[in-house]
Every structure is written in C-alpha cells, then in structure tokens.
Amino acid sequence: MAVTVKASLGKTKYYTEVTAGENKIITDEPIDKGGQNKGLNPMEILATSLASCTAATLRMYIERKEWDVENINVEVELENFPLTKRAVFKRDISFEGILDDEQLKRLHTIADACPVHKILTNDIEILTKFS
Questions:
Q1: Domain ranges in the chain?
Q2: Which one-letter DSSP state was computed for residue 105?
Q3: Where does the source fall among the domains of life (predicted)?
Q4: Contacts (Cβ under 8 Å, ≥6 apart) of 65
Q5: Of 7, 81, 89, 114, most Cβ neighbours within 10 A?
C-alpha cells in the first residue's frame, strides 16, 4: 500500500503544511531551534506514527476478540543517535481493562505486527529526485 504526502514550506521558518489526501497537519520546530512551535516537529511525527499505528492495530484485535478494554494507551519515546546512526524507539503500552497474562502476551505480538513497526524494523530505502 502506497501513501503520498506533500509538505509545503514557505518563508515562515519551519512552519510546514503537510497534506495527505483531504487531511492536513502542521509541523514546526521548537522556538529554541528557530521555529514557532505551532505543530509537532518531524521526530514527533515519526514517533506518533508508531504510537497511533500500534494503538489502532491493538484496538482492531481486541475488538475482534471481544475483550473488555476501555482504553489503549501507547507512549513512544524516540531517541536519535546520529553519530552512531542508531535510533531507539521506547514503546510503553498500557490498557484500561481486565486482561490476563496470556492476553497480554498475545497483545505484545500483535503490537509488533503493526504496519509501522514492521516498516521501521525492515530495510528502508529512500529514493530522491528533484523536479
């Protein structure tokens, strides 16, 4: 499945409008980096992709199993180490509901099966062209 997003950045430092189909978000940089902090920064967007995909994947599975879970909370911390070319995603998942150890074990496997998790743990290639 391919998705296409478009980012447009004018002369306002780092304030970027990103569109995907009919949806739009604003990204920006924090004030201490010269931005206006009017939106999530690109690293936050990357962590958001993993957090939201994980939550949605878990919700789909939980609904299919008809388990009683009111809320799924996913917190992702992304730490980048450019000198070693390494990034670490720390994902903390909690549930508001009653789940036993077997269910939690299964949900761990399901969380790792979310499409964004799979992309981030596979080989990634970025092809760039100027037009």
A1: 1-39, 42-121
A2: H
A3: Bacteria
A4: none
A5: 114
Token representation of residue 97: 């509901």
Which positions ≥6 away from 94 have C-beta within 8 Å?
72, 73
Q: What is the CATH topology of the domain spanning 42-121?
A: GMP Synthetase; Chain A, domain 3 (3.30.300)
Across residues 97-117, what is the average pLDDT? 97
Beginning with the edge strand found earlier in the chain, give each strand of the sheet holding 6-9 in spatial order.
Answer: 6-9, 16-20, 23-27
Contact in structure between 38 and 26 (CB atoms under 8 Å): yes
Residue pLDDT, tens place only, 20-42:
999 999 999 999 999 999 999 99
Contact 54, 75 (CB under 8 A): no
Is the pLDDT assigned to residue 103 strictly greater than 90? Answer: yes
C-alpha closest to that of 100 among 74, 68, 72, 75? 68
Structure confidence at residue 68 (pLDDT): 95
pLDDT of residue 1: 74
pTM higher than 0.90, yes or no? Answer: yes
